[in-house]
Structure formats: structure tokens, C-alpha cells
Design brief:
It contains 14 helices and five strands. A hairpin with a 2-residue loop joins strand 2 and strand 3.
Amino acid sequence: MADDLAASTIPDRSVNQASLRYDERAAKRGEVDFCWTKACGEKRVSDRIRASVDPRIVMAFAVVYLVWGSTYLGIRLMVEHLPPFLSAGVRFLIAGALMLAYAGWKGYRMPTTLAEWRWLALVSVMMLVGANGLVTWSEQWVESNQTALIVATSALWIAWLGTLGTQGQSLSGATYTGLLVGFGGVIVLVGDGLQAGDAPWFAYVALLFSPLLWALGSIVSKRRPLACNPFCSATAQTIVAGVVMTTGGLAAGEAERWSWEPSALFAMAYLIVFGTCIAYACFFWLVHQVTPAQLGTYAYINPAVAVLLGGWLLDEKLSSMQIAGTLIILGSVIVVSWFASRARPKHA
């Protein structure tokens, strides 16, 4: 899978192919996905591959759909016995080291300039330190099924944020209606959870910011792709998150709460290998291959997987009101993703 993800794009058919030449050596070095040159210099051409015709995209989506749906359960099991920030930091440090070793073995070029690392660090702080960190911290109190449903709103945020700026897409009135209805579903879900005392209010507030940060990082990353291939970008982000979160956890005194509970360590190992090394690399590759609306479709598959696993293994249940909120959220995500996938660029 990683070998397929290291290769990437095909040329835009609107470009004069006779004037372009494929630089195979650059692609093999991992410096770019596909590198094309003209007489006036080198130009990277954007990708417009659709999931229906590229098996790599189908495979990457399948991994993100299924594996990430199970990570909510894994995080819940991990933070039952391990401190949130330190355990997440160790997770990302180990995963980053494994990904770096693979990149070195394959001969991929990691980011080398300070500007590249600054940009990747910014995305990492938004998506891994911020969004994933808030999920990990909140799951000390909030059950995995509710967490996954709230995080599902990242698809709504991605669709809305995708309209901003000169590269944004225009959305229809039906899409905006779906966005409002979806956020209304979140109010129903969280409101009932607060009333039932399922978790403290601050845990829910943290979760509400998590999908916003994730969506913002996804949009920012897509609009400013770097020269290194997506796997190396994901590796760099994972390393940054590991350093930041481990340092933060140690500074907060979480080392005293460390435990060697086998179930927590097994959950961490699963998150390292599947949740980060495989699934995050697939997701970050997809960021550069598909539209924001297409990317957001994982948000209504992940919660279904999380709810099933949480009910089966942890006996987590949803109240009738929470089920209603769930249906509203997932229904709106499907509607928004459908209409947003047909959106056109603003300049079109």
C-alpha cells in the first residue's frame, strides 16, 4: 500500500502533453509525486483522479473508513490506564520512527528546508496535536461512540471551509441547509449527554473543537502541497506531534501516572501500527488526491464502526435522543457530502 501511495498523480489533460516530459528519476527519489518539465522550467501538475477509476484511492478509503472507525475504541482503552498526552506522544513518536525507517529504506526524500518543516509543523499542530489530542483527552470521560459521532462533523466543517478563499468551491443552498441541520444534530447529541451526566461539559467542549481543527488542517494542507511525497509529509507531521505531545505530557507530570497495563499497551500498539502508520498515511495521501467533500465521506463510516465496536466490546449505549441526534448528524453528512461533491470552483 505504501509503495502505491509513494507514487501519485497523473498530468492534467488540459496541459499540452507534447510540451511536457516525465522526470522519472525525481519521482523515484520521492522528491515529487510526478514531476514534469517544460522549456521554461519544472512544473508540477495537479491530480484529478477519481476513486472510481483508481484502485489505490479505493484501497486508501477502505483503510480510513474501517481502521479509523476502530481507533476510537483503541483510544478509549488506552486512556483508561495511561495519561492522555504522554500516551499519545509516545504513540506518535514510535509510529514516526517506524515511518521514518520505512521512508529511508525506500529512499524517499524527507523535508529538508526550514520552510517545509514549519508548514508541516503547523498542520501537525492542528490535526494531530490539536484535533487528535483533544479526542484522546476527552475520551477519559466521553464514551467512544459519542466521540466518533461528534468528530463526524469534521465532514461538515471540511465542506464549509472548502468554500473559503480563491481556491474555494461554491456550495448550494441545500448544502448549507445540511450543514445547519448537522450541527443541530450535534446539539441534540451533546445536550442529552450533558443532561444524563455522561461526561463533564468541558470534555464535550473540547470535542467540539476537535473536528474544526481537523478540517482546517485538511484544507490548509491540500491547498499548499509540498515537494516531498505525501508519505514523507505524514511522517514528518507524526514526528512533530510525538515530540510536542510527549514534551507536554512530561511537563504536566503525566509520567507518574504511567501504567504497564497489558490492555492499554495493546491498544497503544494497535493505534501505532494501524491508526497512525497505515491509516494516517492513507488519509494524508487522499488529502492531495480527492476533493474536500469526497474526503469527508469517511465521517459517516467511522462513527458506524465505532458505535458497533463500542456496543459490542465496551457495552456502550445511546439514549433515544442520542440515537435521534446520530441519525440527524449522519444524514446531514451524507447530504452535504453528496451536494458538495458536485460543487464547482468559484471562478468556474
